[in-house]
């Protein structure tokens, strides 16, 4: 059963229009704009955010959305979101997604796993999955967007009375920024969660040394065979 979701679109393109028609077929969709976002009307909703980028980066509409998210605290409190970014160039789709996802999350939006589908101008970034699926690039892009919209419409966040949080790391405890950040997060969660930290640094696991791709692939396959 697909639950109703909100479409918050920032920017237009013919391909994005076709993609959204395909992805949202069979799902009850309510279009929304910055007015609804800023009036807190999107709190507690399922929100699909669709952006466009060009040769210079985010579209003006996407920048306005980003500004609204950053300046209206809690405007997405209790909401669940997903992102589609459609680009006319080969760059900036991920950058746009990262900026908007961070702002939306700080505004209270929860993102399930793998909440982003992006397409560059040529759709070359689809070629690996297209090969795995045996589909053309555009069909792969559209299929991924449809799957994302359906996952958003079906997603229910798990609820725990007191969650358990495990931090795993293989870094130097004394000098690692990653460990320091992880400990800060765990300390912040301590009043609400049971936290545990496990270090995997036992002499066999090291930070990446920047070896060549072929060397990394060789040793990873050797470990798999073992």
Write structural notes for this entry.
The model is unreliable at 222-226 (pLDDT under 50). 41% of the residues lie in helices and 20% in strands. Strands 1, 2, 3, 4, 5 and 6 form a six-stranded mixed β-sheet that branches. A two-stranded parallel ribbon has the order 7-8. By secondary structure, the chain is α/β, with parallel strands linked by helices. The chain is globular and about 55 Å long. The chain has helices at residues 14-23, 34-38, 60-71, 93-106, 127-133, 137-154, 177-189, 213-225, and strands at residues 5-10, 29-32, 46-54, 57-58, 80-87, 116-119, 164-169, 194-199.
Write the layout of secondary structure elements.
Elements: E1 5-10, H1 14-23, E2 29-32, H2 34-38, E3 46-54, E4 57-58, H3 60-71, E5 80-87, H4 93-106, E6 116-119, H5 127-133, H6 137-154, E7 164-169, H7 177-189, E8 194-199, H8 213-225
Parallel strand pairs: 1-2, 1-3, 3-5, 5-6, 7-8
Antiparallel strand pairs: 3-4
Helix pairs in contact: 1-6, 3-4, 5-6
